[in-house]
Amino acid sequence: MNALNTTDAMLKESTEPMEKIKTDILIIGAGSGGLSVAAGASQMGADVVLLEGHKMGGDCLNFGCVPSKALIAAGKQAHAMSHGAKFGVTPVMPEVSYAAAKDHVHKVIDTIAPVDSQERFEGMGVRVIREFSKFIDAKTVQAGPYQITARRVVISTGSRPFVPPIPGLDTVPYETNETLFDLREQPEHLIIIGGGPIGLEMAQAHVRLGSKVTVLEGAKALGRDDPEMAEVVLNRLRAEGIEIAEGQIAEKIAGSAGAIEIHTKDGSVFAGSHLLMAVGRQPNVDKLDLEKAGIEYDRRGVKTDMALKTTNSKVYAIGDAAGRHQFTHVAGYHGATIIRSMLFGLPAKIREDHIPYATYTDPELAQVGLTEAQAREAYSDKLEVVRFPYHENDRAIAEGKTEGLIKVMIVKGRPVGASIAGAHAGELIQTWSLVLANKLKIGAVAAMIAPYPTLAEINKRAAGQYYVPRLFDNPTVKRVVRFVQKVLP
Ligand SMILES: Cc1cc2nc3c(=O)[nH]c(=O)nc-3n(C[C@H](O)[C@H](O)[C@H](O)COP(=O)(O)OP(=O)(O)OC[C@H]3O[C@@H](n4cnc5c(N)ncnc54)[C@H](O)[C@@H]3O)c2cc1C
Ligand SMILES: NC(=O)c1ccc[n+]([C@@H]2O[C@H](COP(=O)([O-])OP(=O)(O)OC[C@H]3O[C@@H](n4cnc5c(N)ncnc54)[C@H](O)[C@@H]3O)[C@@H](O)[C@H]2O)c1
C-alpha cells in the first residue's frame, strides 16, 4: 500500500479535540533529511516538532538504501560460493532461501532502526507526532488533531515510486521498492521495467540469488552515467545472465499472477513470473496543499532557490521533495545547510558541483562532479582527462577484480569531476569528493602516499597520469636533467 494514499482519510477520520502548538521549527517528514534537521536543531537549542505519517526513517531505512544494500549483500555471498574456482576453491551451487535472505534484510533494518526512532528523537527533546499533515495557511500545518504554527517549516516529505499508467498494469500484481523487500516467495523470472540504479541493483541481487532476470529499459540502461563507465557494469551484469533489453518501452501489460507479459513499443513481448516497476520517483508534494501556503511546485518537486527556500520565505524544502539530487547523503547535506540559516540567520546556500553518488552493483559505479561529456561541454579544449585501469592495480589483480577504470576530468590543474567503475568504487570516490568539495588541485592527490597494495592506489596513479606528459614526455625536462647530471659533483 502506498502510505501517502492514506493521508486524506487519516486527516478526515480524526475526531480528537484540536490542540494548537507553537514551535521554532516544524519538520514534515522523518526521513534522511527531516531527521538530520531535527537532530541538529534540537541539540543546538531550538524547539522542534517533527511530523511523520508513516515509518520513522523514511525511504532510506525502510524501502530504499538499507534493504537494497542488505539484499545485495545476500546475493554477493551466493555469488562468491559459486565463483571460487580461480582461487582454488571448489565452487558449489549454494542453496538459497529467498525468504531467509529477506529475514536478513529485515534484521538489518531492525538493527539500524533505533537510530531513527521516535524514542531517540524524543530523548533529544523533539516533539514527535505520528500523523500525516498538510498546510492550512501560510504559517500553519494541520496534522491529525494538531494545528502547528512555526517560525520556520521544513518540507522533507521525500518521494515515492513513479508508476506510469501503462495499460493493463492495474490488472496484474507488481512490486515497487515499497513492497519488494516484503516479498518472500522467490521470483522464478523477475521482469524489471527500468534500467536505472534501482532496477540494476535489484537485477543483480536477484540473479545471484537464483532468479532469472530480464530488465526492460526504454532508453539506455544507466543512462545518466558516463556510457564508457556504465558499459563496465552492464557487461558484467549481462555476463552473470541478466537479459538487459534497451530501447524497449513498456506499452501494454497482460497476463496474470505468475505469468505476466510485457508488450513493448516495437512489438516485442517479454514474459516472467514477477514484475518490478523501477522507472523513477515522484516527489511527495501533491497532498500537502502547498497552494494554501503560497508554495510553488511542479512534477519534479517543490521549487527552491539555492538556499533551499521555497516561494514562501519561511518554508524550506529539502531532500527528494526538493526535486534535486535524490540521495540520502544529499538530503543530509540539505539539512545541514538550512540549519545554518534557520538557527543562526546566516546566509547558507547549497553547492551542486561536488555531489557524489554510487550505484552498488558489482562492480560499482561512482561519480562526483562532472562526467567527461559534461566537462567537455563546459570547458571544451581546456579539459584534460586522465585514466587508470583496475587491471594495472596489484591489489585488484590479487583479488581477481580487474574490471574497470577511473577517469578524472581536470581543468587548469583542478579536478572538476571523477568517475570510477570497478570494485569498491563507492569507497574510492571519497578522495575525489574531498578534492572537489575543497577545490583542491590534482597535485594534492599526487602528493598523497597510498598504502600498498590497496585499490585506492588507482586514485594516486590517475593523478600521476596528469604529470606523465609534463615530466616524462617533456624535452625541456630531459634537457635540464641531462645538464644537471653533467654539472653535479
Ligand atoms: C530502492 C532504493 C534504493 C536507494 N538506495 C540509495 C543508496 O544506496 N544511497 C543513497 O544515497 N540513496 C539511495 N536511495 C535514495 C534515498 O532513499 C532517498 O534519496 C532518501 O531517502 C531521501 O530522503 P528524504 O528525507 O528526502 O525522504 P524520505 O527518506 O523518503 O522521508 C520522507 C518521509 O516523509 C514522510 N511523509 C511524507 N508525506 C508526509 C506528510 N504529509 N506528513 C507527514 N509525513 C510525511 C514519509 O512517510 C517519509 O517517512 C534509494 C532509494 C530507493 C527507492
Ligand atoms: N545507489 C544509489 O544511490 C541509489 C539506488 C537506487 C535508487 N537511488 C535513487 O533513486 C532514484 C530513482 O531510481 P530509479 O532507478 O527508479 O530511476 P531512474 O530515473 O534513475 O531510472 C529509471 C529508468 O527507467 C526507464 N524507463 C522509464 N519509463 C520506462 C518504460 N515505460 N519502459 C521502460 N523503461 C522505462 C528510464 O529510461 C530510466 O532509465 C535514482 O535516480 C537515485 O536518485 C539511488
Automatic annotation (TrEMBL):
It holds the Pfam family Pyr_redox_2. The keyword Signal does not apply. One of its GO terms (molecular function) is mercury (II) reductase (NADP+) activity. Residues 24-335 form the FAD/NAD(P)-binding domain. Disulfide bonds join 60-65. It comes from the Bacteria. SUPFAM superfamilies: FAD/NAD(P)-binding domain, FAD/NAD-linked reductases, dimerisation (C-terminal) domain. Keywords: Disulfide bond, FAD, Flavoprotein, NAD, NADP, Nucleotide-binding, Oxidoreductase, Redox-active center. Its EC number is 1.16.1.1. PROSITE patterns: PYRIDINE_REDOX_1. Residues 355-462 form the Pyridine nucleotide-disulphide oxidoreductase dimerisation domain. InterPro entries: FAD/NAD-bd_sf, FAD/NAD-binding_dom, FAD/NAD-linked_Rdtase_dimer_sf, Pyr_nuc-diS_OxRdtase, Pyr_nucl-diS_OxRdtase_dimer, Pyr_OxRdtase_I_AS. FAD binds at residues 69, 157-159, 320. Binds 1 FAD per subunit. Its cofactor is FAD. NAD(+) binds at residues 194-201, 217, 280. Belongs to the class-I pyridine nucleotide-disulfide oxidoreductase family. This is Mercuric reductase. It comes from Thalassobacter stenotrophicus. The lineage of its organism: Bacteria, Pseudomonadati, Pseudomonadota, Alphaproteobacteria, Rhodobacterales.
